[in-house]
Amino acid sequence: MFHIFFILTLCFLADYAFASQTMSLAQCLEAGMKNNPTLQASEFKSDAVGRDVKVARADFLPSLTSSYAANRINSNATKGPTNSDYINQDIHSATIKLTQVLYAGSRISNNYERAKFLEQASQAERDLVKLELIYNIETTFYRVMKAKQDVIAATEAVDRLTESAKAAEAFFRKELIPYVDVLKAKVDLADADNQLGVAKNNENRQRVTLFSLMNLPMDPDLEFSDETKATVRERPSFESCFSYAVEHRPDIKSLEYQRQAADKQSEVSLGKYMPVIRFEAGYYDVNNDYEKLGRNILGSYDLDQTNRYWLAGVSVTWDLFDGGRSWYESEKFSLDSQRLGALRQEAHNTIATGIRKALYSLQEAEQRLASSTGALAAAKENYTSEDNRLKAGVSTMTALLDAQSRLVRAQVNKSSASLDYNLAHSELKFMTGGKDN
Asked: How far is C-alpha 389 from the chain's CA centre?
């Protein structure tokens, strides 16, 4: 019983280990979202900008300060009536002061609103990095799968041509075909072997890129599985894609938030022409310890003083002239707002162009996918027929090699059409801001 349990456990672990060596597109995206350093850096940046909101919010609250000072005064020379403030003494003073800004020309509230807009812009930029990462992982994954299919097709071609070359030599020895057919078979076999090497190299290069995007160490044993086939789906309209993109594209959101932040900064600059009203309340403790006693007609007396008191009041400061500095600052940020508005319009145009191109590419890929699927089935049937005809002695080696060439071409066309169809969908998804069309 123990041996049976042990064997079942080993089988389970072996199956688990095998399963863990395969990654789907969804798993690749999950690994990229978790490990990609560029995305992590954008998240840190967004979190850092978010702290500026808390910094700006603190300006609404009162400030509480305390101070302590210890000073020594040594009098060198005096003339005229003696002032007790300037004779030898030790001064110790302690202060606790509360200050609350009551009005500052809306500068505090505008600074807070500006910080919130910049935080939203930073979050949108982080979302754009995430969207670009998803696009890069998806397109690279599809290229890996296409390269994998190319390797399979090239391997099958080498196997078929190896058998064809052997058959050609056998037919030649029986004087059923000329030697030139043997040479053609060998040349085609060498060419197919070269294509197999190119296909393997391309697959390795695409795999390296995919591992880099996921920030994972290169693992030659890890396989990628395509769980979503290139099945033709209903093509969306340009209007629906563009309206979705205007609402969801992170770069458009970021530019709009930056424009609103520039408007707030312009208002902050104009607010500098308004007065600042503060409420201040403080507690003061001042001790003067005089070195010598004071004297008068009645004799000597102690000059030491201790003053403890509260002070509360309202102060107003108003900068009446600054050479136009604040005005020009306001104009600068107003122009910056207009610049960001123009960039937002340019982003609209770029996205609209990208959506149209993606839809055209999708339409073309759909047509190629349909035609290449039928062509591949016909090429496989044609090759099987020519192989059987050659074995029956009613066809030629040249016809079989031509059928082999057409089969390889049909396989490449099918895999290329599938790749372009998936790439067009990823492009459309990227251009619309993540809409899964």
From this structure: 58
The residue length of the chain stands at 437
Joined together, the tokens standing for residue 337 give 């707002």
Each residue's pLDDT tens digit, 254-294: 999 999 999 999 999 999 999 999 999 999 999 988 877 76
Q: Are residues 215 and 309 in the same domain?
A: no
pLDDT in tens, 29-81: 999 999 999 999 999 999 999 999 999 999 999 999 999 999 988 877 766 66
Judgement on whether residues 265 and 374 belong to the same structural domain of the protein: yes
SS3 345: helix
Backbone angles phi, psi at 20, to 5 degrees: -70, -10
Q: How many CA atoms lie within 13 A of 399 on its CB side?
A: 15
Tell me the β-bridge partners of 282: 97, 311
Clarify whether residues 300 and 339 are in a common domain: no
CA–CA dist 176, 171 (Å, integer): 5
If one counts every other C-beta atom within 10 angstroms of the C-beta of residue 279, the result is 14
Same domain, 301 and 198: no
Closest CA to 48 of 120, 130, 119, 116: 119
Domain around 296: 85-103+282-317
Which amino acid is located at 118 in the chain?
L
Q: Which of 133, 144, 135, 149 has the alpha carbon at shortest distance from 204?
A: 144
Distance of CA 51 to the CA centre of its chain: 20
The reply to whether 250 and 230 lie within a common domain is yes
Q: Which of 24, 8, 45, 187 is nearest to 125 (CA)?
A: 45
Q: Is the pTM value of this prediction over 0.85? A: no
With H, G, I as helix, E, B as strand and everything else as coil, classify residue 417: helix
